[in-house]
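User: Last request for today: this protein with zinc ion, please.
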Amino acid sequence: MIELLAALALQIASADPIAEVINADAGFPMASEATEQSRFSCIGDYIEGAAIICRAEPGSVASLGDQSATADEEGWLVLGLNRDSETEMEFSIRFPDGVVQSSTHEITQREYNIQRIEGVPPQTVNPPEEVWALIREQSRMKAAAYTSRWDGNGFAEGFIQPAEGVITGVYGSQRFYNGEPRRPHYGLDFANEAGTPVYAPASGVVVLAHADMYYEGGLIFIDHGQGFTSAFLHLGSVDVEVGDIVAQGDQIGEIGAGGRATGAHLDWRIKWRNRYIDPALVLELDPASLR
Ligand SMILES: [Zn+2]
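Assistant: Here's the final one, the structure of the complex with zinc ion:
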C-alpha cells in the first residue's frame, strides 16, 4: 500500500505542474489530470498472504498477476496474494471507458514456521484406503463451493475475529513428516472449549455447511463476495445451511474437535480464487477508509 500510495503521489506530483501550465495558458480548469489519478484507491500491503481491497468505478476490472476481479455496483473489489508469491507482480486496472493503469509491486516475502518431525508411523500419515472415495467426494464438494462468486460485498465491512480463543496456529506454517512436506497450514487457529460460539467475521452467503467432514469435522464456507471465502473447520455444531445469508456477528456454529483435529479449536481460513489469504492480515484491514 505504501508503494502504491507513493507511486500515485509521484504521478500526481509530476502531473501537477503540467496541469498548472495548461490551466494558465487556457484560462480554464483542467481537472482531467487529477481525476485520472483518483479513479481508484486500495488498502492492503503487497505482502505474501495479503488481501487488497479496492474501490473504483463500477465495472472496472483489476488484476493482480493472472487473477482478476470486477468492481461491483458500489465500486468494491477484492484481490489477494498467495502464501508463496513471486517477488514482483503487476497490478492493473481497466476502467469502463477502456483506460488502463498499471503498476509493478514488489511483494514482501515472508518466512514461515517450518517443523520437521521424524519417526512418524506411516499409518498416521496417510488415511486408510476405505475412506479414499469419501475423501475424493468431499474434496469435489469443497472445490465446487469455492467456485461461488457472491455478488454481495461483505468483505467491504471489514472483518471481526470469529471466535474467542488462544491463537495456537498461524498461516503459512508447514510440517515435514519423515522428510515429506505436508500441505502448509493456511488457517488461523483459535483454541477454546468445545461449544464456544463461532460468529460470521463479515456478512456473506453460506456455500457449504456439513456436520462431519472426514478431515474438517463440522465445516462451513461463507462467500463474503466475489469468491472471497472463509472456511471454518472442526466445528462441533453447524448452525447454518447452504444458501443462508449471514450478517457480521451472527452465530454460525460452535467450536469442536471434529475431523482430524487434535483438540477443540477453530481453524479459520480464507481463500480467494486459488490463493489462500492470511486471516490475520485481513483482520487488520479497514475498508471504511475507502468509503
Ligand atoms: Zn488449524
